[in-house]
């Protein structure tokens, strides 16, 4: 997962993305992973797509956690 994130560092991270953007990307990555169904489990493409799915799920969790913290700080 970390390797995939580092390879995409030039894209500027996810902090500029909103929940809908991240959900769209997660859905796209799940679709890509699903398309690889039936391939060799150790296939490098399966591993990369699974890492992409995990990373977008992590980004969503981070966004929600940050939003929750900001909401508490404003109260």
Describe this structure in words.
With 75 residues, the protein is mainly alpha-helical. It has one domain (2-74). The chain is 72% helix and 0% strand. The longest helix has 31 residues, at 44-74. The model has no long low-confidence stretch (mean pLDDT 83). This is NTP pyrophosphohydrolase MazG putative catalytic core domain-containing protein.
Oligomeric state:
single chain
Kindly state the number of beta strands.
0
Report the helical percentage.
over 70%
Tell the overall outline.
Answer: elongated
Low-confidence stretches: none
Report the average pLDDT across residues.
83
* Domain tally: 1
Q: Which band does the percent of strand residues land in?
A: under 5%
Biggest sheet: strands, sense, closure? none
Protein name: NTP pyrophosphohydrolase MazG putative catalytic core domain-containing protein
Organism: Paenibacillus oenotherae
Concise overview:
With 75 residues, this protein is mostly helical. The chain has helices spanning 2-7, 19-35, 44-74. The protein has one domain.
Please give a handful of descriptors for the protein shown.
mainly alpha; 0% strand; 75 residues; 3 helices
SSE topology sketch:
Layout: H1 2-7, H2 19-35, H3 44-74
